[in-house]
Amino acid sequence: MNEILSLVLGSMHADLARLDHVAMNLANVQTPGFKREVGLTLPFAARVDRGVQQGLLAGDGVAPESLRALHVDARPGTLKSTGQALDLALAGPGWFEVRTESGAAYTRQGNFRLDARGRIVTPQGHPVMGAGGEIQLVQGKPVIDASGRVFEGDAGPGAQPVGQLRIVQFEPSVRVERLGDGLLLLHGEAAAAPEGSTRVEQGFLENSNVAPMHEMVQLLQSVRHLETMQKVAMGYDEMLGTSIRRLGEPS
């Protein structure tokens, strides 16, 4: 494929991916704990420079999907009161850890419940992890303090917690993958949140951090840029066609 058209195609693919991210964000405006996703790419000029560095001028080509990555915007959303004992929200940075078939996953979607065994689980049945493993209750009416300690019934002086929620943090640069249902799979290391850095709010849920007006602006910008790249491709193709016709004309 012609080198210029290859670069334009890569830019158009990035615009389409950006539209997918915007659609995902808008579809989850009302989803508790949802964190908006952003597709990151280098600007067009930087893509040209990278193509030259990778030997584009020698005809090696460059993959259209290169230089794209998923970034999760971890900024907190507002909190809403529900009064439910197993509705939990995090005030500050951090993620709840749960166990899935794919291994450890992380979420801010704290609308938990108890399963038939008395374990605290997500709506899909994934166990919510504590510092010592799964958290299992007998009475089913826990009291959870700001540090994430889980008590059965009474959290007064001398009461012994039955477990402590595992709250973790990780660097924004760590690559993540969405598993659906508000879960993130981490391709990197997560560490326990420092004591006091995050507060657990019982009886609250965190709202999505998606701003619909901002997403609509992103939608319009992506569509306009896609249209521009389409015109560039059509103009370049027309220029090539004109050049070929003139080369074929008798001198």
UniProtKB/TrEMBL annotation:
Superkingdom: Bacteria
One cellular-component annotation, GO: bacterial-type flagellum basal body
Domain Flagellar hook protein FlgE/F/G-like D1 residues, every copy: 89-137
Subcellular localization(s) per the UniProt record: Bacterial flagellum basal body
Annotated ranges, domain Flagellar basal-body/hook protein C-terminal: 202-245
Keyword terms, alphabetized: Bacterial flagellum, Cell projection, Cilium, Flagellum
Main location: other
InterPro entries membership: Flagellar_FlgE/F/G, Flg_bb/hook_C_dom, FlgE/F/G-like, LlgE_F_G-like_D1
GO terms of biological process kind: bacterial-type flagellum-dependent cell motility
Annotated transmembrane regions: none
SUPFAM superfamilies with a match to the protein in the record: Flagellar hook protein flgE (SSF117143)
Matches recorded under Pfam families: Flg_bbr_C, LlgE_F_G_D1
PANTHER family named in the record: FLAGELLAR BASAL-BODY ROD PROTEIN FLGG, FLAGELLAR PROTEIN
Homology family: Belongs to the flagella basal body rod proteins family.
Protein name stated in the entry: Flagellar hook-basal body protein
